[in-house]
Design a protein that fits this description.
Helix content is about 40%, strand content about 40%. It is of the alpha+beta class. Strands 2, 3, 4, 5, 6 and 7 form a 6-stranded antiparallel beta sheet that branches. Strands 1-10-9-8 form a 4-stranded antiparallel beta sheet, covered by helices on one side. A hairpin with a 3-residue loop joins strand 8 (about 135-140) and strand 9.
């Protein structure tokens, strides 16, 4: 795990906390802080900074602690990845509205408890003949599981990629935090006469 991004995230959080603490001390508390007329853009800026820190921490944790396995599997094969057991049940052909797909069914177990099965597809579209892989995702609060079906290896075996990503949704939470700062900064710009930033 790389510590430089974590140090940067800690520095962003620390400076935001120091800034808010200084304003609280000078104004005499949250109620007086509101009465002093602190612009809303100030809160939006701090919210955006915290969002950046959360994104950095999330990316660092995911990159440093994720587990990735790429292997060939036949019906009945199992593999353990980051404490989860993946059992390959096989591949069936399914017809979609405009494609033909090979669909893999994989059972997932955690400490003997069966989780929701994952189904990944490799699709061939009728008109364009493009081949696309639909990754199966089991998103959790503290981890995300990914299963992707690869190419057939013969004799009923298929290439399968399994990924475990801890706190995989944290970078997205940081992006949401930065997005919440927009109404504060936009409102401030409209009051001061400056044009509000265009929504992306």
């Amino acid at each position: 795990m790389c510590w430089e991004p974590s140090a940067l995230a800690f520095w962003i959080v620390a400076t935001a906390w120091v800034s808010v603490s200084e304003v609280l001390t000078a104004s005499g508390g949250w109620r007086r802080m509101r009465e002093t007329g602190r612009p809303r853009s100030y809160y939006g800026m701090r919210c955006a900074h915290l969002g950046v820190a959360v994104t950095i921490i999330g990316i660092t944790v995911v990159t440093g602690y994720q587990t990735d396995r790429d292997l060939g599997m036949q019906v009945g094969d199992t593999v353990d990845v980051a404490g989860y057991t993946f059992s390959f049940r096989g591949v069936t052909q399914v017809r979609g509205p405009n494609y033909l797909a090979a669909r893999a069914a994989i059972d997932v177990f955690s400490q003997g408890r069966r989780l929701e099965p994952l189904r990944s597809e490799k699709r061939v579209y009728d008109v364009s003949r493009n081949v696309m892989t639909e990754t199966a995702i089991d998103a959790g609060l503290f981890r995300d599981l990914y299963v992707s079906l690869g190419e057939p290896l013969g004799d009923g075996a298929w290439r399968v990629r399994i990924q475990y990503k801890p706190f995989g949704s944290v970078p997205g939470r940081g992006t949401q935090s930065r997005s919440t700062s927009y109404p504060f900064t936009a409102g401030r710009c409209s009051r001061t006469g400056f044009p509000a930033p265009a929504a992306s």
